[in-house]
Amino acid sequence: MSKLIRIGTRDSELALWQAKTVQQQLEHLGHQTVLVPVKSTGDMLLDKPIYELGITGVFTRILDVAMLNNEIDIAVHSLKDVPTVLPQGIVQAAVLKRGNVRDTLVFKDNEEFLSQREAVIATGSLRRKAQWLNRYPTHTVVGLRGNVNTRLQKLEDHEDWNAAIFAAAGIGRIGVRPEDAINLDWMIPAPGQGAIMITARENDEELLAICTEINHEETEICTTIERTFLNLLEGGCSAPIGALAFIKNEEVSFQGVLLSLDGSKKIEVTRKEQLGNHHNIAQFAADYVLERGGSRVMNDLKDADKHTQVFSTKNLSEMQRQRFQNVKVESTDFLKISLNRIPKPLLKSPIQNVIITSQNAVEAITAIVPKEELQFKNIYCVGRRTKKLIESKIGKVKHSENYAKLLAEYLVEFIDGTEVTHFCSDIRLDELSQTLEKNHIKVNEVEAYKTILDATVIDPKVEGIMFYSPSTVAAYLENNEPNNKVAYCIGDTTANEAKKHFEDVRVARIPTVESVIDLVNENYASN
């Protein structure tokens, strides 16, 4: 090629080293080149972690713009920094032979902290942070930004830091790797780590042909698998995703990982295929991860910057959380339960009619006397799950209703005798007792458990609250205001209490947690 090839690069020491490596290989083939250094957004904004900048390709975008504006002919990147989907009109032209793929731990003093409960590790990578916390959950990970030399200096300057994590290729290429640094062979690297990538304009056939001459095919195969895996998981620099492929004895081996931000959840996959039959490795690995909880982890990652929309006043199970559709929810128990010691003689005495309105009452009864010693003749209850628990731990339920009001109306009509024993909480609505006593049915109330209101302060930005009893409404109001929020209620009794304080009150079709979740989904589906 007779014309001068303008090589675009960031102006950091490492980026210039990489660009000069490309320059040397091109000039060795007889081409004339010139370096065109530019400063990227990622280099200019050093006060925030990469994942908080909100820019796709934070280190590559300015070079993409320069190329599309015909200010440079090719661009040189660290492949791990390049988005898996390139801008329209720009393509991957080549990757050079890969260097050290590993992450490296650089100590401030020594490695004794690795066996200690408390330690401080510095890194700006969510992937490194998540994997470190998965292995050392009691350690603290702090943010670290800047070029390699800046990061090494920050490690030196912070007295409370024990170590920092770097890409082995980066500190090795510019000759600043400390002698006592160690490679973290257990840590799966970023897709494309250790490789140098060249991009060019899609329609520049002459330059694409030239770059093909310095392309390293084995590195291209491996990094393509890694980046396809990343793309299929829909991750970017803000997702804790690791991937590594390598070729040995005509066999391609792959290892991938997806983690939650705090490292508590980790899903790994490995796969081997003969070279030539390797094209489906990335798809297999991504499907494997997603089917084993990866979909939920990715949804949580996507929602990480999204404010909580709905708060549940009852702690939700993982299965219940998965029922939400594009709604970010938090949950905790606003009610704490303390079981009372019900007198044994009472429980062992024959009781003709028993009313149980919660699962907590079942637990309180069976904690004192085994089912074999109970002499309950007719058991009436409220709620499908309460009925299931009663029949598992106490005995057959004669009749159940979804609401206390409906149960009271049934008993007025069909009860055997004129007296009932109601195992209840110290906090309760009097509707059931009042209805029965109004109809000359005596109610003996036994406090089976105490309900303690224990609400947290909710972010004012939360748009809706999920309530499961009048007591959860009362608990919420102890530390929070309605503030135009939507009240999603499990039933009419709860809704009636909520209507005293909330303007927008919605009631689930059936009194289950799942039905309340469906109510939330319906609201957001219509927005």
TrEMBL record:
NCBIfam families: hemC. Residues 221-276 form the Porphobilinogen deaminase C-terminal domain. PANTHER family: PORPHOBILINOGEN DEAMINASE (PTHR11557:SF0). This is Hydroxymethylbilane synthase. Belongs to the HMBS family. GO terms for cellular component: cytoplasm. Its cofactor is dipyrromethane. The keyword Transferase applies. Its EC number is 2.5.1.61. GO terms for molecular function: hydroxymethylbilane synthase activity; uroporphyrinogen-III synthase activity. Monomer. The keyword Transferase applies. Residues 5-207 form the Porphobilinogen deaminase N-terminal domain. GO terms for biological process: heme biosynthetic process. Keywords: Porphyrin biosynthesis, Transferase.
